[in-house]
Amino acid sequence: MVIAEKARASNFRVFPIKVSFSSKASSQVLTIINDSNETLRFQLHTYTWKQNAKGEMQLNATEEIVAFPGLFALKPGQQRLVRVGTLTPVSSIEKTYRIFIEELPPQTKANQQPNGVRILTKIGIPIFLQPSKQVVEGGVENIVVSKNQINFQVKNIGNVHFIAQKVRVQGLGEADKSVFDRQRDGWYVLAGTSQPYDLKISQQECSKTRTLVIEIKTDNKVFTEKREMPKGACSASN
Question: Where does the pLDDT of residue 168 fall: very low under 50, low under 70, confident under 90, or very high at 90 and above?
Fold first, then answer.
């Protein structure tokens, strides 16, 4: 399965912007298009992609994903097809990678001086090696309220990634009357990992809240956790 969307940098485009492999499809083509008025040079690198306890991206060079060609140039308006593939077997848990398309400095002729400061662009495309049976499941855990701050984690307990498109936190008071309602965008949550979130609320909002409702909206599911406000969570000394 490939999502046919485009990633755009200042000088070039790449599509699709996400690639999924399976036991039945172990390769895919990326298209890179030079939108500038000069020749561009590119180099490709592949990495395993993990997330640490803070939700930060952890990358390590890998040979499990291969790309050809790995080094090439494009003239203005030209496009290049890059074959990306893997021989790594499918497992019961999704494997995650990223391929980076990196713009290289232009070649200069002998005695030619560089012309000003040039900003080079690098685009990262996620790659997913999906299990035969996919389970999308998640939840909210480790909810802590202290010093007018709400901390919690969005946990992926399935075997494939999901994207937390919207993270919504509501505070309900007496008779379930709304005290506050905040939303923020989320990101990828890889299988078996958690993403931490925090939310500042005012002393008044905290003291009026009796129930917290945390809702995580993904591509095709909504995970909801409802929790009574802990006693003493809003005290000035807490």
Answer: very high
Q: What is the mean pLDDT of the chain?
A: 89
136-154 pLDDT, tens digit per residue, is 999 999 999 988 899 999 9
What is the rounded CA–CA span in Å between residue 92 and residue 87? 16
Beta bridge mates, 68: 83
Q: What's the domain count of the chain?
A: 2
Q: Using CA atoms, how far apart are residues 156 and 188, in angstroms rounded to an integer?
A: 10
pTM of the model: 0.86
Strand order in the sheet with 222-228: 178-185, 166-172, 211-217, 222-228
Q: Rounded to whole angstroms, how far apart are CA atoms 42 and 32?
A: 10
Is the bond leading into 16 cis (omega within 30 degrees of zero)?
yes
Rounded Cα–Cα distance for residues 41 and 110 (Å):
18
Where b means 16+ CB within 10 Å and e means fewer, 119-130 reads: eeeebbbbbbbb
Looking at residue 4, what is its pLDDT?
Answer: 42
Domain with 6, as residue range(s), is 2-129
Pair (21, 119) in one structural domain: yes
